[in-house]
Design brief:
Strand content: 15-25%
Number of strands: 21
Helix content: 40-55%
Distance between the termini: 21 Å
Length: 528
Amino acid sequence: MSSRSGQPVVILRDNVERVPGQEALRSNIMAAKVLGNTVRTTLGPRGMDKMLVTQGSDDIVITNDGATILHQIHVQHPGAKLVVEVAETQDDECGDGTTTAVVMVGSFMEQAENLIDTGVHPSVIAKGYNLGMMKALELLDDLAIAVTPKDKAMLKQIAKTAMTGKSIEMIIDKACDVVVEAVSNVAVTTGKKTIVNEDDILVKTKRSETMDAEMIKGVLIDKTRLDALMPKKIKGVKAAFIANPLEITKTQTKSKIKITSHEQLEAFSVAERETLRAMAEKFVENGVNVVLCQKGIADPVQYYLAENGIYALEFVAEKDLKYAAKALGGQIVNKPEDLTPEVIGTAGNLEMLEDIEMTKLSGCKNPQAVTILLRGSSQHLVDELERAIEDATRVVQDVIEDGAYLIGGGSVETELALRLREYAATEGGRVQLAIEGYAKAFEIIPKTLAENSGFDTVDKVIDLRQAHATGEKYAGLNVFTGKIVDMKSEGVVEPKRVKRQAIQSASETAMLLIRVDDMMISKSAGQM
């Protein structure tokens, strides 16, 4: 840039790249559309999977989870990073609906592009989008259906909708039972509010010949007994949780013991053995028959414990130890001397699972923590199985906490598009065009469901519009038959929280990007 005198005036440093005006806006629109189109094909029960490969390593991930895909591809574009943030926020808040949220951002930006081409100013579009979002969230409350935590059949349908389309079809009914049972077990009701802490459900995976899901009222630990004399099964478990090592530890200060005779050496060995025996005796005195130790257990202590029929595990991970204590209703203590009846945990059974090298503590009464064990024939399958179970667990948790759900299959989006068009007519002016564009953006969901299932998108969207215009507010697309059916009777349901969060975060991010008319990109020395 030069002044009138011809002298150059430097405003920006050499390391700052400027993308001005329309170019910045078009760049952000393109980034959002590209990401939306990338994950679009994974939406719905008949969505496809993505294979994510890390060059130079053997890491291969096969998934249709939106958040996982976007997290793995490491986007560079600043606008695209905001879209990835939408997916991550959706995943943190709800555990599901990540693909929907990203597809919606792409669709909102596409409609904004059409409006800009017709001469509508970005600030008018942002205003219209904001009004549309407020109305959409209000309409969601009208469309929501109340549910109680005791309605297990409905909770299973919620879990089933979340898992349909993932690699879990063979055991989906069993997996739904497992998820609902697990969430119901750890749900805590105080007054009218029910809270579920997702950390109280531990998911463990193992490779095996068959695919299976099992819920354990207790805990699984990836270790087996220390001594062959220890029992493989115990009924009526009384467990102690020890944080410090069960061995004679070194003193804090340097000290030496001078032994000058055979008798002294013998006496020293006897004293040492007696100290270790006394440790084991403490467990026997307190009626303990299972010992979980975070650190090491000396060989003599192992022998004394085995002699008394006590099952012991050493070097149990701190996380597993805390989890076991919570599941069995016990407390972690530092040493055997601290044992009291209050800190001892109880369970119905202990079983050593030799085939998968695990210890199973089950049959806890009113457990505050439970474990889900998943088995699959390959590591890729087990990982995807785990992602599906975690999504289902979160959505069941959302419904139990909020006490409300919505109908799926594109019915909510079609109804919102219809009602928002009616609302747009009441506003008038150019804002009306923006709200109409916002309304049209919602049709991307039924359109994508039809496309991923191999049906004609235009025909299906028109059929859906017609059904909703005649008052069928639960009409949605059956992706297997291609027919427009009542999704409520089909049992396709999802949490209100998932849809609400997706609409809100997608709309807010779109508004944020629409209002950007300049990008200043600072580069480091390495990038230059």
